[in-house]
Amino acid sequence: VECLDYFFIGEEESKRLESEDKFAELAVYGGVRYGVTKTEFHSKLKLGLVFLIVEPTGIEHYAKPATDIGALHFKVFVDTPLETRISRFKTRAFADIRAARDDPDKTVASYFKRFESMLTNELTWKDMVKWDSIIDGRESPKDNLNLILTDLAML
């Protein structure tokens, strides 16, 4: 939901913020810019328990600022077998493609890029970072969250 889950800005605004070093993290995926401003990052950390879902290459963008303000960070890898990920991917992709009214070709193209990523660079993610915990991702997202919360309670 706009202004609740995400704050959508245009490409020019994103480039301006980048030039002013305002992003804690910025990535480009499929030609679309995704980022979190330093202001947003710090305001979320002050709320208490925060979950960020990022690619391994983005972790250090968050770990250092968290450490700098005294926030604990815990890196969890959800190790989901490729077969499970593909099954979930197909369900999500088919639903999104069926629902795409404005530009279904663009939706299909974005899913092809996502599928290619699943079969290539994402296969190396488990080995890219020294994880604090690795959990079995075959369970439901709710079950995975409970496992993560159990690990955090032991800190």
Supply database-style keywords.
155 residues, alpha+beta, two-stranded antiparallel sheet, two-stranded parallel ribbon, 6 helices, 14% strand
Write the layout of secondary structure elements.
Elements: H1 11-19, E1 23-29, E2 32-37, H2 38-45, H3 59-68, E3 76-79, H4 82-99, H5 104-119, E4 133-136, H6 141-153
Parallel strand pairs: 3-4
Antiparallel strand pairs: 1-2
3D architecture notes:
The protein has 155 residues and is of the alpha+beta class. Helices cover 48% and strands 14% of the residues. It contains six helices and four strands. The strands form two sheets. Strands 1-2 form a two-stranded antiparallel sheet. Strand 1 and strand 2 form a beta hairpin. The longest helix is centred in the middle third of the chain and has 18 residues. The mean pLDDT is 84.
Give the DSSP E fraction (strand runs of 2 or more residues). Answer: 5-15%
Please give the radius of gyration in angstroms. 17 Å
Spatial strand order of the main sheet = 1-2
Number of helices: 6
Average predicted local confidence, pLDDT: 84
Topology as a string of helices (H) and strands (E): HEEHHEHHEH
In short:
The chain is of the alpha+beta class and 155 residues long. The chain contains six helices and four strands; from the N terminus they run H-E-E-H-H-E-H-H-E-H.
